[in-house]
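Inputs:
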Amino acid sequence: MLFWVALAVLAPILAPFPPNAQDFAALAKPTPSAAHWLGTDHKGRDILSRLIWGARIVLTVAPLAVAAAYLIGTAMGMLAGYFGGWIDAAVSRVSDVMLSFPLIILYVIVIANIGPSAANIVLAVTLASAPGVSRIVRGLVLELKSQDYVAAAKLRGENAAFILIVEILPNCRGPLIVDACLRLGYTTINIGVLGFLGLGLPPPDPDWGGMIKETTALITVWPHMAVIPSIAVVSLVLGFNLLADGLNEMTRQR
Amino acid sequence: MSGFILRRLAHAVLTVLAASFLIFAVSEFSPGSVARKMLGPYVEDVQVDILSQKLKLDDALIIRYLRWLGVLTGAIADPLADPALNLGLSDPRGSRYFGNFGYSQLYKAPVNDIIWNRLANTLLLAGTAFAIILPLSLAFGVLSGMREGSRLDRSLSVAGIVLTSIPEFASGVMLTAVFVVGLKWLPGISPLEARGDWSIAAQLVLPVAVLVLYDFGYVARMIRGSMVEVMGRAYVRTAFLKGLTRGQVVLRHALRNAMIAPFTVLLLQLNWLITGVVVTEMVFAYPGFGRMLLEAALFGDIALVEAAALTALLLAVVTQLVGDIGYMLLNPRIRLA
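Outputs:
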């Protein structure tokens, strides 16, 4: 994973070619060669360069979407968990509706209606994952609000916002960090899925999912064009998931 | 207990109503007039205006939603079927019946002529995949949860992480590269027509494999987690101390209790398999429900998208309802409360 982050940051230096530069000579023989290490795609564009530039996109869009989902989800969950009553009922009902709906259908409807762009991908992913975050936060707050230090803060006369943000939120961080890592993995998959379905970044931007979509039709002739970006997606998601697993072990041991 | 079921049922109906309004609002409130989407890009503005007037599309959103509900339940006739509009749309079922979803602009036919066939295709795919995922993940989940930290347990947990990290489009591409391009054992597309060299069974192998690979790791890990928790309970220790063998303890005491938590997860998988398999269907050109929804959404086929989304929603709510009730029946502590 660090490998991909480094690649993304250093993209302008490392990438041997601009992402959309076409090498027409390579069209005749697109397989990996000395000039194009991972070969070129159906339009003669260097796959390695597109992967590196694409990493930049995934690694900005995914964390942005997860952060936005956390902002909204945490606020919803904290309010629901802390105040209970009708606020809890309303928030939980909304999350239930959103969660019972297959995510992919949500994405398809939202993106198909508002059009594909990086901002809209963030919006769709945020909408889809905020309820999940809210549910986790709500559970954690319910558990923590009966703790002595919360009662102490209440007796000191602190208001609810202070108690939630200063007393409760920091104590939720363990499980939330693990969940955020898992969510980064899922979001990476989902961004790939959107690209693959033609709902990702509009071409010719180097979107990993889009790269696979454009070249699967050619898989019988030039399998490397679709297989190499697939391996890139898997390696990044695997990185996030292993990180989440490691963090999970760490928080459990403590 | 019947009170609990009734309350859940009321919740479900409310959920469906609220969400169906959202679906309607998102698809009909979208930029670009509804009439324009129905007529396509090649008509004059005057015609668009005429249709907008005839369909009363300038009314408030909530009124249009109620009218849509009216058509859906058969209370009022579908205004699109009016021969005066000259859209060439007709439905053999008539223009007033329960479950009237209107007309698909993409296929130029009543939605009901298209959607059920596609749903049946997806059910075949989802059912086959589920029939493989269920026993496989049960077996592995229970075996590794029985002895936490054993070699089987550790390899399963690594395999689970790896498998859930492979998105469907990636495994689809890789399996195709190996089995279709390399070994030439299987067909690369699954149109479900027994044309050419490949039987329908052969066409199902790869799509089912992709779904099983993606889902198995996750379900097995859920079952394992629940099993590990139950094996640490006091009544399991008592059973061991009583002198029962490991097999007896697992079969008589642990298994039933360990199945309570994953029950809901399993139902949700079924739900996901039926409506969430868009990617797999796209990879293999499978004529299923998800691909239909995607094509309709990209085309701007409002009626079909609404119908498909509503079907997906109903399925989701029903599985949740069944999950809640089943959970209650399985767990005596809730049942008797």
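Remarks. The domain at 45-253 of chain A is CATH 1.10.3720.10 (MetI-like fold). Chain A has a mean pLDDT of 74.
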